[in-house]
Structure formats: C-alpha cells, structure tokens
C-alpha cells in the first residue's frame, strides 16, 4: 500500500485538489489532431470575413466619409478608424466559434468530456485546454488581419506591436466567457441567443463610428460590454494614442477570463463529476 | 490475504428523493472478475460511476484501490480502465489516435503510449483498422477499441458497463474471448450485465441487484444451487391454456413458475417431471429440459425476468 500513501501525499501537494492535474496540454493536443477532420473552408472563411468588412466599409464607405477623429483627437482615415475595431472583432469571432458551438456539440452530443473526465484529468484541465484552443483560433484570425492592416498602411504607430498581445487577451476573454455561458446551455434555441446578442454588440460597440454619437445613457451601457473595451484598447494601440487608462481595459479582460474559468470548471464538475 | 480492490459498505446514491443505489455492500478481491447482474434501471451504472470516481455517493463507505473516490478522484482514475455503457470514442480522431490521445490524458509519455497503442490494437484484433475513422467501425469493433483504450494506462482495475449489450452473437463471442484473456492475465474486472450467459461465463462471483438493492451474492454455480433446482422443464400449452394447466402441475418438481408464454417446472430430474405430466393426461405443445441458469435465480428472487 506504499503506492497509495505516496499518491495521497501527492494530492496534498496539488493546490487545486481534484480540479487540476496540470495536463491541459493533452486536451490542446487532442484539439490539434481533431482539426485535421474539421472543415477548413469554415475556418478560412472566418479569416476573410473582417477583411471583406474592411475593404467594403473602410475603403468604399471611407471614400465618402473622409477622415474622422481618432482616439487622441488627431484626424485619421476612416479605414484606420475601423480597422482596429475589426481586429478586435476578428479575435472575438475566432474565439467564439470554438468556445460556443464546438463546445456545445462536444458537451451534449459527442460525450467527449465524459471520456476525458474518466481519466486523471480534472475539469480545470479540460476548461483550460479547450479555452486555449479557442483562443488560438482567435489569435490566428487576428494575426492574419494585422498583416492585412500592415500592408494597407493602417497600423499608424509602433505601439501597434502591442496590439498582438492585446488581441490574445481579447480572444482569451471571449473564449473563457463563451465556454462558461455555453456550458449552461441546454438547447439549440438557447445557443441561437448567443449569436443574436453578438450581432448588435458587433455593430454598436464603437466599431464603425465613435461612441460620442450616442446619448450618455447608451454610452454607459455600451461601455459595460466586453467588445467596446477590446475595440478601445486595440484602437489606442494601432493609432498610438496610448495612456495608463488602457489598463482598465486590460483589467476588464482579466476579470472576464477569471470568471469564465471559474464558472466553466464548476459547471464541468457539476455535469460530469456529479 | 491481500487488501480488497473495492470495498463498498452500505453504499447509497440518491437523485433527489429517489435512491438509484439503495444500501449495497460488496467486496472485490485482486484478480477477481466480479459482476453486477440486474435488469435495466437496477442501479448498475450508478454504482459503476461511483466506483469510477466520477460520481459522489450520498452515504455509506467506498474504498477503491485503497482510496476514497470522493477525495482522491484523480489518483483512482489514473489507475482505472473504464468502458462506459455507451461508447464515447472520439469521433474526430482515427482508431489508433483514440488510444494515443487517451493515454496522453493520463500524462503518460508519448513514446510509451505509442508502443502500448500498437500492442493494444493487436490485442483488440484491429491491426488493419489503425487509420480507420471511428464512424466506419462496426459496433463490435468500436467496443473492442473502447476496451483497448481503457487499457492504455495499464489499469489495476477494469470497469466494464454492459460490455456486449447491442452486439450480435458473433461479436459478443469475440469480445468474451478478449475479456477471458484479460482474466487469465490477472486483471481485476468489475462488470455489469443483464445477460445471464455473460455473467455465467465471465464472473467468478457476482451480486444480483434489483431496484438498487442486492438480492443475492455468490459464484454463478453456488447461486444456481442455492436458488434453483438442477434442471428446468419448460412446457408450452398455448398462451390461453398455460394458466389452467399450471394449476394441475402443483406438486410435480420443487416449484412452478408461470410466464406469459410458457411454464417453468423446477426439478432435479426434468425428464421424470415430463413423464409425470403426460401421465396426468396433459399434452404440452412443446417441451424442453435444460440446466438451471442465473435467469432462473433472478426469476426466483424477484418474480420477474431479467430482460423484459
Ligand atoms: N443523473 C440521474 N438523475 C436522476 N436519476 C437517475 C440518474 N442516473 C440514473 N438515474 C436513475 O437511477 C436508476 C438506476 O439507473 P442506472 O444506474 O443507470 O441503472 P442500470 O445501469 O442498472 O440500468 C434509474 O431509475 C435511472 O432512471
Ligand atoms: Mg446501465
């Protein structure tokens, strides 16, 4: 019985107890292997979506609009105004695809997590692994889009380099929160609600015009939404209007990530380790 | 005597007010093949999930591999192989990949997992399905792959929840043969089934469970000795005449059981019982003498058939 004594003491060394085995990477590598059987057309189309928006609205509509006031008050082209917003949206969409519909399917139909949680993995391993995968998809879309911005000359400052960690943070936030929300969903109708809410958030979060067009009440409302924080953060970086206030946006996402992880883990435990 | 692999004492699992497992106790020794035999809804899977450390108990004591599953879930699961009632293979991965990826969930090194996966694909007689999509495998192959997957971490205890339910007879025999191999190698098995032939073939010892409670415990042979006669005579008089005929059969053999389609006469000598029936002037449409089985034990204990 010495083996079990060793294991019993090993448990005491694990700060998160039964929740975490420190092996989220095995969940991620499963995801990599599984992508080989995914529909790549869907993945790639996600890469082009924001580019189409940028071309049609930024260049097309931008020809009519001319210049607008950027974050620091300097005049910038309309394309340079909406491009960082679309960059944040690209990160969000990539993260949302994997962490909502894909997670819903795995949770309710393919019984993937039942299998995982019958091994030595804990719910936090599963949550972290799946969220990291979703995050990577968001980061992939965002990176692709950043290159397009560079080519079109829409990164106006060297600060734009920091937009990369910023979009990773944004993708992490949406992946984490998205998976948490999805884990409480039971039907397809409920899942459709997620899409239904995302669309107005995409349109109204100061994506295509400044927040100042709204009355103060609406402004406050929009400032509560996650995408607005992402748009503001990225726009300040790509246009070079950086100040300490940006840390609030970072903090918003850190909270979002933490809340998402806690609820996802709790929910996985309730569902699969009852 | 070595320590028991599983010890359950007064184990209870309630869902709201309903007790799915209602005060059961049993012990499984190392190297033993132990069965939970019972009809649908008896509480077999619920028991398996508690032993597998994926479900917490409502009350009672449970010890698996020396540890309490409610507190040492990951440590226990690391040493278990689990074949759940319905296959949950990873449909997005190929057959052999399922083993590799599963092994990685246990934190085992890639190289070790790869070597073990090859051995297990051979053990499961799936060498030519290494790259197959899970969807393209037959039911029996999926089941074998699930068993191979459960063995990837070299478990000290293998849990099999209805391993052959839904398979055709040939696929069942292939599977039984594989499970025999494991038994011979000394793997400790805990399996559930509602097939009495499966229980008779595979289990050293079993408990008969019904409505969450244990009705009897012992080896298949000892249960049959204790709860049934050596032989059974099955007679059919036609569905509308069985009841009337049964009234006249009292006294022949130890016991009479009337089922909707036939009458079972428990006796140590079935042929002799049949002679006495004909002496009474009764003419059964069909008659059959067979040895008693666990099905008869279950019928005796609960008044119902195992498979309804
Ligand atoms: N999660 C659950 N919630 C409520 N009732 C359950 C749950 N799981 C099982 N049960 C009930 O417990 C009983 C035993 O189920 P189960 O252990 O699956 O039986 P078996 O495996 O022997 O067919 C059944 O009546 C089933 O409906
Ligand atoms: Mg069951």
Strand content of chain A: under 5%
CATH superfamily of the largest domain in chain B: P-loop containing nucleotide triphosphate hydrolases
Secondary-structure-derived class of chain B:
alpha/beta
| CATH C-level category of the largest domain in chain B | Alpha Beta
Number of strands of chain B: 13
Number of domains of chain B: 2
Count the strands of chain A? Answer: 2
Main attributes of the structure:
heterodimer; A: 274 residues; mainly alpha; two-stranded antiparallel ribbon; 11 helices; B: 308 residues; alpha/beta; Rossmann fold; Alpha-Beta Plaits; 2 domains; six-stranded mixed β-sheet; four-stranded antiparallel β-sheet; 13 strands; globular; binds adenosine-5'-diphosphate; binds magnesium ion
Characterize the structure shown:
The complex is a heterodimer of chains A (274) and B (308). Chain A is an all-alpha fold. Chain A has one domain. In chain A, 74% of the residues lie in helices and 2% in strands. Chain A contains eleven helices and two strands, in the order H-H-H-E-E-H-H-H-H-H-H-H-H. Chain A has helices at 2-12, 24-35, 40-65, 78-108, 112-117, 123-151, 163-183, 188-204, 216-224, 226-239, 246-272, and strands at 67-69, 75-77. A two-stranded antiparallel sheet of chain A has the order 1-2. In chain A, strand 1 (67-69) and strand 2 form a beta hairpin. In chain A, helix 3 packs across helix 6 (123-151) and helix 10 packs across helix 11. Chain A starts with a helix and ends with a helix. With 308 residues, chain B is of the alpha/beta class. Chain B folds into two domains: 6-224, P-loop containing nucleotide triphosphate hydrolases (Rossmann fold, 3-Layer(aba) Sandwich), CATH 3.40.50.300; 229-292, Alpha-Beta Plaits (2-Layer Sandwich). Helices cover 35% and strands 26% of the residues of chain B. Chain B has eleven helices and 13 strands. In chain B, helix 6 (169-184) links the parallel strand 6 (157-161) and strand 7. The longest helix of chain B is centred in the middle third of the chain and has 16 residues, at 169-184. The two termini of chain B are 41 Å apart. The structure holds adenosine-5'-diphosphate (ADP) and magnesium ion. Magnesium ion binds next to helix 1 of chain B. Adenosine-5'-diphosphate binds at residues 15, 20, 38, 40-46 of chain B. Chain B: InterPro entries: AAA+_ATPase, ABC_transporter-like_ATP-bd, ABC_transporter-like_CS, ABC_transporter_ATP-binding, P-loop_NTPase. Chain B: Residues 6-236 form the ABC transporter domain. Chain B: This is Lipooligosaccharide transport system ATP-binding protein. Chain B: Its main location: membrane. Chain B: Pfam families: ABC_tran.
